[in-house]
Design brief:
Blueprint (H helix, E strand, L loop, with lengths): L6 H11 L1 H16 L3 H14 L2 H9 L3 H7 L8 H15 L13
């Protein structure tokens, strides 16, 4: 079955009209990082950046080159904690949200 809409376009439109969805994506990325799935977390952050401020504005606000930010938020990216903090700070300010996650007990 062929998709009728581009996934990125769908996410972008939903983020722009639904602040709770945008916050849920940010929370999901955070949860994935904390639970050992950084590749997926970085891709969600990339989609969120593309759907909100864009990489050029993120580069200005973080004082990091746009190309470097693209690499950091790729599946194989490896951002430092300082760079992730800067990205999260800008996204939280842009979305006017705080990160709200639930800590789940670890299963043994």
């Amino acid at each position: 079955m062929e998709l009728t809409r581009d996934f990125n376009e769908t996410v972008s439109k939903r983020v722009s009209r639904d602040p709770e969805f945008a916050q849920a994506l940010l929370n999901e990325a955070t949860s994935l990082f904390l639970n050992g799935e950084p590749e997926t977390a970085r891709l969600i952050l990339r989609d969120l950046v593309n759907s909100t401020i864009g990489f050029e504005e993120l580069a200005i606000q973080t004082a990091k080159p746009s190309k470097s930010l693209h690499r950091m938020l790729s599946a194989k990216g490896n951002p430092t904690m300082d760079n992730l903090t800067a990205i999260y700070r800008v996204l939280c300010q842009t979305l006017n949200v705080n990160i709200g996650i639930q800590i789940m007990p670890c299963s043994s």
